[in-house]
Amino acid sequence: MPQVVLIYPQIPPNTGNIARTCAATGTELHLVGPMGFEISDRYLKRAGLDYWPYVKLHCHPSLEAFRGCHRQRGGRWVGFSTRGSCSYIKHQYQPDDWLLFGSETAGLPEEVLENCTATVYIPMAQPGVRSLNLSVSAAVGLFEARRQLGYVE
Question: pTM, whole model, 2 decimals?
Fold first, then answer.
């Protein structure tokens, strides 16, 4: 099953909302630091409600630590970015994909984008709107991957 990875998340409620989505779908969630908050942040906990026991959470103190985890487990990096080369709907997902999302303020760092097998974007109908909220983007991407792979009935 695909996994969700947040690289340098900054806003606790967004991460908490993504954690709820991951709990509801049985999806592993990887947080890559440095983060803009502590894992014990009350806003993070509040957004995740009482679903935290159901979150398969992995915290990596650095990008290098996360890379080590990825090397051990394998799979493709699929980077979600406004500069992606393919619509997220047209991309063909695989069960071992890692869905990478960058911070709310800067997106995925260039060094991460360069190491992605594919980069995808979520189309915006309004040219003045650059992107969706991080938690919405993660849900949209995860559910499309799950749909394609037959995890959604």
Answer: 0.94
